[in-house]
C-alpha cells in the first residue's frame, strides 16, 4: 500500500477544489443517501484488508477488538444516518409569535460547506469514518487527515474513500504532525478534531483566525466511582472490559477507580480473577492488543517506574516475560493502589492498561477528588441505589455517563457524544452530529397581507397603543 505523504502545497488547492464543487452542486437527499450506501458496501467488502492494516499498525491487535471497536460502530452509524436522514433534513416549523401573525417561521438545516476531520490512532477507522459519514449526511464535502501513527490504516482509508467518492467530494491528506498543524489552519467551514487536550488547544488556536467552528473530542481522566452497595465482582467484570479493551487505549476508558474502602480488597481480587479468565498466561496473547508505538510504551513504563519509586503497590495481574514485553510492546493489566495526587498515574491521562485504585471513606470525599480536576470525558457511577447515583450525577459534570457499566453510552445511537471543558466541546453521533455540521437557518415567511403593511409613518399612535396593550 502506498503511504506517501501529501505535499503541503496541495492542502489549500484541495480545499478550494472541494469547496468549488460543493458550491456548484450541493448534495441533495438522494446523493447523500447514495453516498452513505456505497460507503457501507465498500466498507463491508474491505473488512479483511482493514483488519490486516490495523493489526500491522499496532504490531498486533485482537481482530475481535477491531470488529467490536471499529467495524460494528461504523456500520451501525451508517445505518442510523441512512434511516433518519430524510426526517432530519426537513425544515422544522416554529412559532413566529402573535406580534408577527400571520407570518410563518421555520428552521432549515443547511449544510455548511467543507468539513475537515482530523482523526486519531487509537480507533483509526471508527473515529475517522463516523464524523466523515455524518458530514456527508449533513450535505457537506469532507477533507480527512488521519493519524500518521497508523500509516497503513490511513492509506487503507484513502484507498477506500477513493473507491466511493469523487476527488472533489472527499479528499484525504496523509502526513505527519507538521502537515496536521497546517491542515488545522485551513479555512474550513467546520473542523472535527479527536485527540489529546494538549493538541486540541493547538488546533483551536490554529482555527481561531478563520473563525472556524469546532467539534473537539479530547480526553482526560475519566473516573469510575464504586459505591459500597455495588457487588465488587460485577464491578470488576465491567471495569475490566472498559479498561482493557484495546489495551486501555480508549479515550473513554475508566482512567481510575474510587471505591469504598471496605470493598477495595475484594475489587482487587475480582480484577485479578478477571485478568486470568480473559488472558490466561499470555502464552499466545492473541486477545491482548499491543501498545501502538515505542513512545507510548515508554510513557506507560515510566508511569509504573514512577509508582514503584514512590513506594506504591503495583500489581501486574498477569506475569509477562520482560524480554518479550519489550520486543512486542506488551503491558499486562496492572493495578496501582492508593496513588497520591502527585503520582504520574494521577496527573496524566493514562491511555493504557494501568488502573489506579483509590479507596474513600465517604462519598463526599470521592466527589471532591473528582471535582478538583478537569471535567472528564466520561463518568462511571456504580451503585444499585438510585439516590446515590442521582447524588453523583447532581454534583459532577462529565461529557457522558454510563451508570453501572462502562463505554456503552458511546454506542447508543440517539445519545450525543462529546466532552465538556478540558475534555472537549461540541457533540456528534446521530442527530447531534448532523446538527453540528449544518446551520439551522431561521426563515420567516411573510404572507401577502400582513400587519406590517399598516406600519407607516408616523408610528407614534400605533406604538402608544401597543405599549398600553402590553402593559395590561
Report on the structure:
The protein has 472 residues and is of the alpha/beta class. The protein is 44% helix and 17% strand. It has 17 helices and 18 strands. It has helices at 11-24, 29-45, 47-58, 63-89, 126-137, 151-164, 177-184, 197-207, 232-244, 264-279, 294-309, 322-328, 344-347, 363-371, 386-395, 430-436, 460-470; strands spanning 92-94, 104-111, 114-118, 141-145, 170-172, 190-194, 213-217, 223-226, 256-260, 313-316, 334-337, 354-360, 378-382, 400-401, 417-418, 424-425, 427-428, 438-445. The strands form 4 sheets. Strands 10-11-12-9-8-13-14 form a 7-stranded mixed beta sheet, sandwiched between helices. A 6-stranded mixed beta sheet has the order 5-4-3-6-7-16, with helices on both faces. Strand 8, helix 9 and strand 9 form a beta-alpha-beta unit. Helix 3 (47-58) crosses helix 4 and helix 4 (63-89) packs parallel to helix 5. The chain is globular, with a radius of gyration of 26 Å.
Amino acid at each position: 500500500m502506498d503511504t506517501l505523504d501529501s505535499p503541503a502545497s496541495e492542502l489549500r488547492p484541495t480545499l478550494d477544489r472541494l469547496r468549488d464543487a460543493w458550491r456548484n452542486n450541493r448534495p441533495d437527499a438522494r446523493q447523500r443517501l447514495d453516498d452513505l450506501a456505497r460507503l457501507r458496501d465498500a466498507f463491508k467488502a474491505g473488512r479483511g484488508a482493514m483488519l490486516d492494516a490495523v493489526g500491522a499498525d499496532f504490531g498486533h491487535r485482537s481482530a475481535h477488538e477491531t470488529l467490536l471497536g471499529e467495524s460494528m460502530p461504523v456500520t451501525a452509524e451508517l445505518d442510523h444516518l441512512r434511516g433518519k436522514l430524510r426526517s432530519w433534513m426537513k425544515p422544522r416549523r416554529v412559532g413566529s409569535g402573535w406580534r408577527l401573525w400571520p407570518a410563518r417561521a421555520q428552521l432549515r438545516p443547511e449544510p455548511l460547506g467543507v468539513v475537515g476531520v482530523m482523526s486519531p490512532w487509537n480507533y483509526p477507522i471508527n473515529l475517522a469514518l463516523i464524523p466523515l459519514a455524518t458530514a456527508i449526511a449533513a450535505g457537506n464535502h469532507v477533507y480527512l487527515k488521519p493519524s500518521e501513527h497508523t500509516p497503513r490504516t490511513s492509506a487503507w482509508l484513502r484507498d477506500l474513500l477513493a473507491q466511493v467518492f469523487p476527488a472533489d467530494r472527499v479528499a484525504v491528506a496523509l502526513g505527519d504532525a507538521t502537515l496536521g498543524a497546517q491542515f488545522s489552519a485551513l479555512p474550513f467551514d467546520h473542523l472535527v478534531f479527536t485527540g489529546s487536550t494538549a493538541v486540541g488547544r493547538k488546533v483551536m488556536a490554529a482555527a481561531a483566525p478563520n473563525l472556524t467552528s469546532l467539534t473537539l473530542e479530547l480526553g482526560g481522566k475519566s473516573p469510575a466511582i464504586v459505591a459500597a452497595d455495588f457487588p465488587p465482582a460485577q464491578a470488576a467484570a465491567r471495569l475490566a472490559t472498559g479498561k482493557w479493551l484495546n489495551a486501555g487505549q480508549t479515550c473513554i476508558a475508566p482512567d481510575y477507580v474510587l471505591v469504598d474502602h471496605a470493598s477495595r480488597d475484594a475489587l482487587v481480587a475480582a480484577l485479578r480473577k478477571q485478568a486470568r479468565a480473559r488472558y490466561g498466561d499470555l502464552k499466545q496473547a492473541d486477545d491482548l492488543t499491543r501498545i501502538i508505538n515505542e513512545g507510548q510504551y515508554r510513557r506507560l513504563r515510566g508511569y509504573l517506574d514512577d509508582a514503584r519509586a514512590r513506594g506504591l503497590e503495583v500489581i501486574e495481574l498477569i506475569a509477562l516475560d520482560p524480554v518479550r514485553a519489550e520486543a512486542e510492546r506488551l503491558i499486562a493489566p496492572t493495578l496501582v493502589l492508593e496513588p497520591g495526587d502527585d503520582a504520574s498515574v494521577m496527573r496524566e491521562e493514562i491511555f493504557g492498561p494501568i488502573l489506579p485504585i483509590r479507596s474513600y471513606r465517604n462519598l463526599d470525599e470521592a466527589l471532591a477528588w473528582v471535582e478538583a480536576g478537569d471535567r472528564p470525558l466520561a463518568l462511571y457511577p456504580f451503585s444499585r441505589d438510585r439516590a446515590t447515583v442521582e447524588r453523583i450525577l447532581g454534583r459532577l459534570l462529565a461529557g457522558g455517563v454510563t451508570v453501572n457499566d462502562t463505554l456503552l453510552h458511546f454506542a447508543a445511537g440517539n445519545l450525543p457524544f462529546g466532552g465538556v471543558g478540558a475534555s472537549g466541546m461540541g457533540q456528534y453521533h446521530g442527530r447531534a452530529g448532523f446538527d453540528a455540521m449544518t446551520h439551522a437557518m431561521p426563515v420567516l415567511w411573510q404572507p401577502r397581507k400582513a400587519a406590517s403593511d399598516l406600519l407607516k409613518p408616523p408610528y407614534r399612535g400605533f406604538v402608544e397603543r401597543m405599549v398600553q396593550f402590553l402593559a395590561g
